[in-house]
Design goal:
Blueprint: E1 2-8, H1 13-24, E2 29-36, E3 41-46, H2 52-61, E4 65-71, E5 74-77, E6 108-113, H3 118-129, E7 134-140, E8 145-150, H4 156-165, E9 169-171, H5 176-202, H6 212-229, H7 231-242, H8 248-263, H9 275-299, H10 301-308, E10 313-317, E11 323-327, E12 336-339, E13 348-353, E14 356-359, H11 361-364, E15 370-372, E16 377-378, E17 383-384, E18 389-395, H12 401-414, H13 421-448, H14 454-467, H15 471-491, E19 493-495, H16 498-504, E20 509-513, H17 514-518, E21 524-530, H18 536-547, H19 553-564, E22 573-578, E23 582-587, E24 590-595, H20 597-602, H21 611-619, E25 623-629, E26 632-640, H22 647-656, E27 660-664, H23 669-679, E28 686-687, H24 695-704, E29 709-713, H25 719-724, E30 727-731, E31 744-746, H26 753-787, H27 793-812
Parallel strand pairs: 20-27, 20-29, 27-28, 29-30, 30-31
Antiparallel strand pairs: 1-3, 1-4, 2-3, 4-5, 6-8, 6-9, 7-8, 10-11, 10-12, 12-18, 13-16, 13-18, 14-15, 14-17, 19-31, 21-26, 22-23, 23-24, 24-25, 25-26
Length: 821
């Protein structure tokens, strides 16, 4: 059995290890399946000896809180009212995109303002994490958001106050794009003013002008640049100083301010003027901030493009049958809407009248339109290509599929990858360390330098301040995650969080559930074999009558075949299902069983005469379903589940990526091997007669060998295996995809998306590593050069400005980079 615990108080990987150890020590615990400080959850497989109460006690004794616990889906500890913390329990069969209500994962998203570097993000995280009612928080410097996982006593107002007290802004209105546009406009205006006033001063480096008049002109122009256009640095630094903190604004304001005030004595004939140094620092940093703001906008364009797909109006049909144009926000569930040819479908709904072809490429990436008729579901923002449709609205506003997709992509882009932890630790102490190093550099040059070394000491100290860049470290991971998840979403791959993206980069073994993933999942009867004296139509009638009660693809294929043959069926009684093996029941007074030979033998049927038939069908790649009535064998039906287009190519691409490919199926060995040969899967990696409840065990065996395992399934009977894998990949089609079933979900049942997801994850992790190498390497090399007096403050400020831009620019390359495989 499994128990899911919603734990509060975990803040880092060390906390995860403590919780994992505490749970593992409880007698009866078989495996701690998952502990996540970001999701604030733990999941344990255990026997009866390890009761849920003992697990709860172990967590609490470890110093952590418990919000809610459920045992195999049944509540053990009732959660208090209000938003629940994050949970990623194994999916139920019909789970789809989360419906309207609290945000997915039980989190609340805030838009932030006033951040200038990674140190700001760390300060906000620290302030919010200490706020009552907060289980965890993740601040994304690149997007300018904070995602808060609430606990008991949570109030959004408390979060906004905590952020304000730290010297920043937080808003639930969540106009992240608006905040970015505001940032961009301000950056442009400040740079324009700084350049207009500063370029004449900077020209002094090339044209030597002297005289009191020119000196006063430099003072005026430099004042406009440093304390006008550059006032944001001084204001932010002052706010941080009041809170006992320092960030990038502190470094820039100290550097430019020191150069400015060091020039003042020269107005009275003592020393030289260095206004051009102060001006160049501000101008170059402002230029870098403008480029950075533009680049960050490009990194998050995927969300904006998705949000822009939302229709603005709808044609609402009134009681008189007339259609009136209304705003889409005025549509309520149950309203009847008219959708003309060429129009966007305004909301999620169900067709009540008409037929048409609907372009669903915006959500599945599939360019071929899908036929829709009465009773079919349609999704908002898709395009009605041909005929006119009347639909009944079922989901509107935040409950629509598009809105939920946007929210999931936002959450993925706002999450943190484990690889970012090192950068966060460095960023939290970076600015204070740089301030100390700058002070020591100035003192060292003053005390140990040559005669008249005071100017050299000041300039070396300034160079250290303005060349150090905490921004690049803060942008290295989140920008790459934003671009990678955005590109994945455009391809039809939804990634739930950055940690899953990082894990997917290490996948070296993929287990495919055959039916519905590598094959179409719609088996068709292609052969009917009967024993001597048995009427084929009578056998098919008995089998189809029984199979009509089962949702299994094989059962549906048999029922559909009988219907196509116009064979009348009757309702069975005493229906019984044997998962993965077959079914039994009474049809027209006869005891009928249909399924595997082992099931028929178990129920007392002699199947010796059917075995050669079953073997022959299996050799041809068909799945044999044996049929018996009243204890006597009748014959067998051969069903063929055709491989999906691209399945063999997907297997080949995964192999080229160095990934071991396995196939799990409930088919008998010969059928499974025949399918495996067609797909290019080695015989030893074809696992036949695997019952649904054994798929998770197959995953565990691969993990025990040290492999990083991905499980690919339909999110229904594959739920335990999806949860047990390092990376579960749920396969679906359009709005029916089970997005909560696994860390990754494919919007359309295309096997080629699996190697694409692996390749994209690897490129994403490669980009993150490149960014971190540059961010750390830049500071490791540049700061010592500045200490040695080998870099001027102007060169330092230019390097600081462009270091963060280079990191974001490298991340943006992911949008068009060719993927391996």
């Amino acid at each position: 059995m499994e128990t899911l615990l919603h734990v509060t108080g975990m803040t880092c990987g060390h906390c995860e290890a403590r919780v994992r150890q505490a749970l593992a020590e409880v007698p009866g615990v078989e495996e701690v399946l998952e502990v996540s400080h970001e999701g604030q959850r733990a999941r344990v497989r255990h026997g009866p000896q390890a009761s849920a109460e003992k697990l709860v006690a172990a967590v609490e004794e470890g110093g952590f809180g418990l919000y809610h616990a459920s045992l195999d889906g049944e509540s053990v500890v009732e959660p208090p009212p209000g938003p629940a913390p994050a949970a990623a329990a194994a999916p139920a069969p019909a789970v789809a995109v989360p419906k309207s209500g609290p945000p997915a994962e039980g989190s609340v998203l805030f838009a932030l303002g006033g951040m200038s570097c990674a140190s700001c993000a760390m300060r906000i995280e620290d302030a919010v994490r200490k706020t009552a009612g907060v289980s965890n928080v993740v601040v994304n410097f690149a997007r300018g958001t904070a995602r808060v996982i609430p606990g008991p006593g949570f109030t959004p107002e408390a979060i906004e106050k905590a952020v304000a007290d730290a010297g920043y802004r937080a808003s639930r209105s969540l106009d992240v794009a608006g905040e970015r546009r505001k940032e961009l406009r301000e950056a442009k205006l400040r740079l324009l003013v700084a350049a207009a006033a500063g370029l004449p001063v900077m020209a002094v480096m090339f044209v030597h002008l002297h005289g009191l008049g020119w000196a006063i002109a430099q003072l005026v122009l430099a004042t406009v640049v440093v304390f006008g256009a550059g006032s944001r640095f001084f204001v932010a630094a002052a706010k941080n100083l009041r809170h006992g903190a320092a960030n990038m604004d502190t470094l820039v304001s100290l550097g430019s301010g020191a150069a400015f005030f060091f020039s003042l004595p020269a107005l009275f004939g003592k020393g030289e003027l260095y206004f051009e140094v102060a001006v160049s620092i501000v101008v170059l940093i402002l230029l870098g901030k403008l480029l950075e703001a533009r680049a960050k906008g490009g990194a998050s364009e995927a969300i904006e493009k998705l949000a822009a797909l939302r229709p603005r109006t709808a044609l609402k049909v009134g009681a008189d049958g007339k259609a009136v144009e209304v705003g889409v926000d005025a549509v309520a569930p149950g309203d009847l809407l008219l959708v003309r040819a060429g129009d966007q479908i305004p909301v999620d709904g169900e067709v009540v009248e008409g037929e048409s072809a609907v372009d669903e490429s915006m959500l599945t990436g599939e360019s071929i339109p899908v036929h829709k008729g009465a009773g079919d579901k349609v999704v908002g923002a898709t395009v009605n290509r041909d005929g006119s449709l009347r639909i009944r609205a079922t989901e509107v506003g935040a409950g629509t599929f598009l809105a939920r997709i946007v929210r999931l992509v936002e959450e993925a882009q706002g999450s943190k990858a484990p690889i970012q932890r090192l950068a966060d630790k460095v960023a939290s102490v970076f600015v204070p360390v740089v301030l100390a190093v700058s002070a020591l550099t100035g003192l060292g040059w003053w005390a140990l330098g040559p005669e008249h070394s005071i100017p050299k000491a000041v300039f070396a100290a300034i160079a250290v301040l303005v060349i150090a860049c905490p921004c690049a470290m803060g942008l290295a991971t989140p920008t790459a995650v934003m671009v990678a998840t955005g590109r994945a979403a455009r391809s039809g791959i939804l990634v739930k969080d950055a940690a899953s993206l990082e894990r997917a980069a290490h996948i070296d073994c993929v287990l495919f559930d055959k039916t519905g993933t590598l094959t179409t999942g719609k088996p068709q009867v292609v052969d009917v074999r009967v024993l001597s004296g048995v009427d084929p139509e009578d056998m098919l009638r008995l089998a189809a009558s029984l199979e009509a009660e089962s949702p299994h693809p094989l059962a549906q294929g048999i029922a559909a075949h009988a219907q196509a043959k116009s064979i009348a069926t009757s309702a069975p009684s005493g229906f019984k299902s044997f998962p993965g093996r077959g079914i039994s029941g009474t049809v027209a007074g006869r005891q009928v069983v249909a399924g595997t030979s082992s099931l028929l033998v178990e129920l007392g049927v002699d199947v010796k005469a059917l075995e050669p038939i079953a073997d022959e069908l299996a050799e041809g790649g068909q799945t044999p379903v044996l049929v018996a009535a009243d204890g006597k064998a009748l014959g067998a039906l051969g069903l063929l589940d055709a491989p999906r287009e691209g399945a063999a190519e997907a297997v080949a691409r995964l192999k080229r990526l160095g990934v071991e490919v396995h196939m799990l199926t409930g088919d008998r060995e010969r059928t499974a091997q025949a399918v495996g040969r067609r797909l290019g899967i080695e015989p030893q990696f074809v696992h036949a007669e695997v019952l649904p409840d054994r798929k998770a065990a197959e995953v565990a065996q691969r993990k025990a060998k040290g492999q990083v395992v991905a499980m690919v399934g339909d999110g229904v009977n594959d739920a335990p295996a999806l949860a047990a894998a390092d990376v579960g990949i749920a396969v679906g089609g359009g709005a029916d995809v089970a997005l909560e079933a696994a860390p990754m979900a494919l919007m359309r049942p295309d096997p080629l998306l699996v190697p694409e997801a692996v390749a994209l994850a690897r490129e994403g992790l490669k980009t993150i590593r490149q960014n971190l190498f540059w961010a750390f390497g830049y500071n490791v090399v540049a700061i010592p050069l500045a200490i040695a007096g080998l870099l001027s403050p102007m060169i330092g400020s230019a390097a600081m400005a462009f270091s963060s831009v280079s990191v974001v620019g490298n991340s943006l390359r992911l949008r068009r980079r060719r993927l391996g495989g």
